[in-house]
From TrEMBL:
Family annotation (InterPro entries): DNA/RNA_non-sp_Endonuclease_sf, Endo_G_ENPP1-like_dom, ENDOD1, ENPP1-3/EXOG-like_nuc-like, His-Me_finger_sf
Domain DNA/RNA non-specific endonuclease/pyrophosphatase/phosphodiesterase, residue spans: 63-266
Statement: the UniProt record of this protein carries the keyword Glycoprotein: no
Recorded GO MF terms: hydrolase activity; metal ion binding; nucleic acid binding
ENPP1-3/EXOG-like endonuclease/phosphodiesterase domain: residues covered: 64-266
Record-given protein name: Endonuclease domain-containing 1 protein-like
Extent of the signal sequence: 1-27
Organism, as annotated: Acanthochromis polyacanthus (spiny chromis)
Keywords of this entry: Signal
TM region positions: none
A Pfam family recorded for this sequence: Endonuclease_NS
Length: 304
């Protein structure tokens, strides 16, 4: 299996992503994504720094792989989650939060566990825990959102803190949530096969921000999709959205406007959390500059 280079660390600030849920959750922590390549277009994950800090996780729950995440141990947050979009056939499940035992003990059972009242110190060292988010003024932002997953079990599987980054409420329940709905609508209207999605967080250029001095906060959210098979004869106004499109969303209302401009007329609770839609190339250019490394999110740019 070949993996191109993708996500490396530049200034130490990087990306994020991932999660799961209820019942018997099984997570697999390996050195690569060999058990869950199907969540990447052409079975080709983006490339990343092979430093031990970056931990591929095949997100497994109730005996099935549900999606994939690259976890940044230093940031105690995912760099990205990769999944195949499929519209939810039910409601958002109860949020029963999980952690990944294998991040704490390499020989741990691959079963993902729900948080116990008492959390082992090795678990606390190795990853984010619920306490980190308490009183942090950040919500738990899904990279793979539960409403992009068809079955109840797939949705439950997104409630793992390995799929979560600290996200401002104004973004999470505002413009970023609108973007997630828009991508879902576009999938239903025009996509005629799988839609591969990769969503992550973009670190601050300098001066990392942390919650509880432990979990890195992204300055921006980003997302891109690849839908290689779409309806013939797309209306002209829609052609630009296929086979790929992307977006960057503000997660700090005080950020400058070079990457995502602010609409001053937006309502106060969401002002400063705008999302800018853009072609895939534009997103890759932004990530490349921020991370000082070449970035290619989808094999052959999602061209068949
Ligand atoms: C991927 O990991 C598996 C086991 O985790 C290992 O057997 C395999 O050699 C690895 N593949 C590559 C290309 O590193
Ligand atoms: C929760 O932690 C306590 C104390 O360490 C332990 O006795 C108990 O078995 C744990 N429960 C579960 C469900 O892991
Ligand atoms: C959260 O916001 C409140 C109100 O703005 C502030 O007083 C508090 O210090 C903030 N907490 C943290 C952890 O930043």
């Amino acid at each position: 299996m070949s993996q191109r280079i993708l996500l490396q660390s530049s200034t130490g600030a990087l990306f994020l992503l991932l999660s799961w849920s209820v019942g018997l959750v099984i997570g697999e922590v390996g050195t690569n994504f060999s058990n869950c390549l199907n969540f990447f277009y052409n079975e080709t994950p983006p490339t990343w720094d092979k430093a031990p800090r970056y931990q591929p996780i095949c997100q497994r729950y109730k005996n099935q792989y549900r999606f994939a995440s690259l976890y940044d141990r230093q940031h105690r947050a995912p760099l990205f989650s990769a999944y195949i979009l499929s519209p939810a056939e039910g409601k958002r499940p109860n949020s029963i939060w999980k952690y990944e035992p294998q991040l704490a003990f390499s020989r741990a059972s691959p079963e993902m566990k729900r948080f116990n009242i008492s959390v082992d110190q090795n678990v606390i060292e190795s990853q984010a825990v619920l306490q980190d988010y308490r009183n942090s003024n950040y919500t738990k932002g899904h990279l793979n959102p539960s409403m992009h997953q068809k079955t109840e079990e797939d949705r439950e599987a997104t409630f793992t803190l390995t799929n979560i980054v600290p996200q401002r409420a104004g973004s999470n329940s505002g413009p970023w949530s609108r973007l997630e709905e828009e991508v879902l609508r576009r999938f239903k209207a025009y996509c005629e096969g799988p839609m591969y999605v990769i969503t992550g967080g973009m670190p601050y250029e300098s001066g990392a921000h942390w919650i509880n001095n432990r979990v890195s906060v992204p300055e921006y959210m980003w997302s891109a999709y690849c839908c290689p098979s779409y309806k013939a004869g797309l209306p002209e106004s829609v052609q630009q959205f296929f086979p790929t499109y992307a977006a960057v969303g503000r997660n700090d209302r005080n950020s400058g406007e070079e990457i995502v401009p602010v609409k001053m007329k937006a309502k106060a609770n969401i002002r400063g959390y705008d999302v800018r839609r853009m072609p895939l190339d534009t997103l890759e250019g932004i990530l490349q500059r921020r991370l000082a490394m070449p970035i290619s999110l989808f094999d052959v740019k999602c061209q068949k």
